[in-house]
Amino acid sequence: MVDLSQNAALSRRHTRRIDSDTLAAWALALPAIIAYLLMILLPLLAVLALAFTDYELGARGFAFVGFDNFAEMLRDRTFAASIRNTFAYALFVVPLSIGIALLLAILIEDGARGRAFFRAALFLPVVSLTVAMATAWQYLLHPTIGPVNTILRDLGLGTPNWLGASEWVLVSLGFIGIWQNVGFNLVLFLAGLTAIPRELYSAAEIDGARSPWARFRLVTWPMLGPTMLFVVIITMTRSIQVFDTVQTLTQGGPNNASEVLLRTIYQEAFHYFRFGYGAAVTLVFLACVLVLTLIQTRLIDRKVHYG
Amino acid sequence: MISTTLSRRKTLALMGGTAAGLYMPAIARAATVEITAHYSMPAIFQEAQEAVLAAFSAKHPDIKVSYVNPTPTYEDGAQLLLRNAAINQMPDVSFQGLNRLRMFAERGIAIDLAPLLAGLGDPAQYGYSKPILGLGFHGGVQCGLPFATSNPISYYNANLFRQAGLDPEAFPKDWDGVIAHAAKIRSMGAGVDGMFFRWPGDDWMFSALLYGHGGRMLTEDESDVAFNGPEGLAALTLLDRFVKEGGMPNYAGTADLQAFAAGQLGMMFRTTAQVRSISNSVGSNFELRTTTLPVIDPVKGRLPTGGAGAMITTTDPAKQEAAFKFVQFATSAEGTTLMVKNTGYVPCNQIAIDDPSYLGSFYAENPLFQAATKQVHLMQPWYAFPGQNSVRVTQVMVDNMARIIEQKATPEQVLADMADEVRRLIPRA
After folding, report:
1. Do B98 and B309 touch, CB atoms closer than 8 A?
2. What is the model's pTM?
3. CB–CB contact A249 B253 (8 Å)
């Protein structure tokens, strides 16, 4: 992060006059620029154009329909549920998966033994194939034969229909999301923690920060700022992008109780073949990601201390 | 003079002969027509398709059919065709989900097979009975010919029947009986459930209840919904009773299959297409049996048909002719026999259905597959909605049915909402 900001400042100073360095820089960046244009910018422009048409995959023609697709979204019950669920899911998953990961990272970092084991064990969900894992989750959370409900029944507790009842389905998917994200965030936090110089803790202790909480508040928390910013943005984006677990486990049901934005886009474009409407929903999705990222970088960046 | 003329003639003849001889291979090559074909779900259809192709190639050496990579699901298959339609590189023949054929015809991708069928004379002579042709006939167009069909059947666990004091030899003939059986099996406790009717996914199983009452989805002229009458209400009321009286659980995804295979579910109502995979997953856990779906209206009652149909996309006359020969073979008594033996789907050729020399021994050896064939006379097309929201309509129905399953709305409320929402999605007349 430090290097990046310095580089940005340096390059700004250098672009004022064109020299061989600048040319070399452009030449080196060219492949990336071409890839960006072809793979991201052009498709994005195509989506932008499609969003204002009634194009359907395989149709012989299409017409520009102005803002019709966006007007339809306002009336679309599925889209409304989709927006609501995606944000509820993110609000549930982001704080918990960051909080739990931070707690675990500090415990592992302070722990004397088993550091490598815990790190690997908690990272496993990240490297495992989500679709395969979803099948395992479906069995674990099965309303009658699942181990979770078998235990609950033996304890004399209620046995919710985790993935079938509209009250529970988002919570269940949220837990699976947290399980997936914690390992990833944990590794990032561990890296961030290792980078904090030990002397700072000693210095803080000498200055009167006697309790572990005080040392966390005064040293760890501010020093972890850049990592935290990165983790928050990554987790937020990953949560808004939730798709595979929903698609494999609940297909958005029951009655849209677990419908999420990415699945709506997929359904509209590739199941109903309504490319125009699908593109319009995609634009809304992109706008959400953009706004969230901007708010976070603007708000948090101001408070982040780049050590 | 004479001799020279003769010799000149001879020479000419010789030359002509040689030229013709040299030219022959080219003619033979030109007579070989190459066409491409596409199908989905190789896990189910690969063996059948390869058997059909081998038999066809032996019979028609002048037509070379090659398969493009099969797509994993019907949905992927439909996408492939629609994408390739945009760049005009479609396979000449494609096997698609029966309820998707209409969309391809409406988008000008599938050609009307009626003129080609007319060339055969009387289609019934080739085993294409009216109901069989009807499965590929939508909106006035013969969009395709059915290749593999399925209908909904009952699966049950004979061991659970016996434990609950029920007779596995006497499966209930109507839904009242099923509900009573379900309640009895469920009362054994220990997490055992009585029944599951596979309502999620799409409108297929709902249409089984609707057609069972003699109802229909839209009016004859397709300008308005028709399921919101007494038949539709009766269908949704049955669904409501499955939950209220039969204690039907709300299984998501494939939870029903898991519970059934684990021996924790007494009865299951879903497509016959899964007989093979269900009997594999059950293994020797318990005695699996299948039978026909309980009858609702013995006179007017019908059942929806799932499965795949073959459609032709090529507009080139020579290719069209070759493609039709291939499609005709795949759906002939011989082709359908190969299909049934390799998949367990229901035969789609009247000759193969009527003449036991084709499949008699197969069904004697595989009794689980018999249930579906006993219902062939009840099969009618899985209704394909007209217009651009054809597939979306089915989701609206599923979403509304979920409200009954969760007991959040009455069948009357759900029927009214469903009619309103579907009405908005069908093309206005």
Report:
1. yes
2. 0.82
3. yes
Q: How many CB atoms lie within 10 A of CB B170?
A: 10
Rounded Cα distance, A219 and A203, in Å: 10
Specify the number of domains making up chain A: 1
Question: Most B CBs within 10 Å: which of A77, A137, A145, as the mutation test of the B interface?
Answer: A145
B247 token code pair: 């204690």
H-helix or E-strand spanning residue B34: strand B33-38
Please give the domain boundaries of chain B with CATH numbers for all domains: 33-150+305-381 (3.40.190.10), 152-303+385-425 (3.40.190.10)
CATH number at A299 reads 1.10.3720.10
Which residues in chain A are closer than 8 Å to B387, comparing Cβ atoms?
Answer: none
Q: Is residue A21 part of a domain?
A: no
Q: Are B183 and B246 in contact (CB under 8 A)?
A: yes
Establish if A87 belongs to a structural domain. Answer: yes
Q: Distance of alpha carbon B241 from its chain centroid, rounded?
A: 29
- Residue A151 belongs to what domain range? 66-303
Query: What is the value of ipTM here, to two decimals?
Result: 0.76
Tell me, yes or no, whether A4 lies in a domain. Answer: no
- Asked whether residue A49 is assigned to any structural domain, the reply reads no
Per-residue pLDDT of chain B (429 residues; tens, 9 = 90+): 344 444 555 544 444 444 444 444 444 445 689 999 999 999 889 999 999 999 999 999 999 999 999 998 888 898 899 888 888 889 999 999 998 899 899 888 999 999 999 998 899 999 999 889 999 998 889 999 999 999 999 999 999 999 999 999 999 999 999 999 999 999 998 889 999 999 988 899 999 999 999 999 999 999 999 999 999 999 999 999 999 999 999 998 888 999 999 999 999 999 998 898 899 999 999 999 999 999 999 999 999 999 999 999 999 999 999 999 999 999 999 999 999 988 889 999 999 988 999 999 999 999 999 999 999 889 999 998 988 788 888 889 999 999 999 999 999 999 999 999 999 899 875
- Chain B interface residues (partner A, CB cutoff 8 A): 75, 78-79, 81-83, 85-86, 103-104, 107-109, 191-193, 200-201, 249-255, 258-259, 262, 264, 388-389, 391-392, 395, 398-400, 402-403, 405-406, 408
